[in-house]
């Protein structure tokens, strides 16, 4: 089993809500730009980053943007088959299956990003992998039916934002947000 470091990328509002009816409850262009930049950028142009997502997250991405370009897309699902996804998208039944798939591609992969939904975040955050969370804290209240698991500050340490992460507060469509980074270490 790989001890690869996972990167969770998520936006959550005041009540830690992340979605409603399979969609984001807000539209934050600057946050989407950050998401695209952080999940796409690599230091080695010969490598790509992986994005791991659940079926509902996959289906919530507008069809014209699927698969997420420039990244290796892995979708967790027990019901989708190769007929339901483009040929360059990988399917895995479990999070561990996805990680085994990543291990098999190790020489071509730079970083691993977990992009949703709640159960996939849960597997990444509470699994046995080192994990960094890039949390866009949406400073407002939104009605949500899907929530990010609690970030246990006994397990995750808030760190100074890496140079790739803006430290300022943003405002988009009247909604403010800033990015906070947490790290879970293993010896």
From TrEMBL:
Biological processes, Gene Ontology terms: dihydrofolate metabolic process; folic acid metabolic process; one-carbon metabolic process; tetrahydrofolate biosynthetic process
Catalytic activity, reaction form: (6S)-5,6,7,8-tetrahydrofolate + NADP(+) = 7,8-dihydrofolate + NADPH + H(+)
Keywords: NADP, One-carbon metabolism, Oxidoreductase
A GO CC annotation given for this chain: mitochondrion
Sequence ranges assigned to domain DHFR in this UniProt record: 5-184
MF terms in GO: dihydrofolate reductase activity; NADP binding
Pathway the protein acts in: Cofactor biosynthesis; tetrahydrofolate biosynthesis; 5,6,7,8-tetrahydrofolate from 7,8-dihydrofolate: step 1/1
Cross-referenced InterPro entries: DHFR, DHFR-like_dom_sf, DHFR_CS, DHFR_dom
Keyword match ATP-binding: no
Highest taxon above the source species: Eukaryota
Major enzyme class: oxidoreductase
Enzyme Commission numbers on file: 1.5.1.3
Family: Belongs to the dihydrofolate reductase family.
Protein name as it appears in the record: dihydrofolate reductase
Species of provenance: Elysia crispata
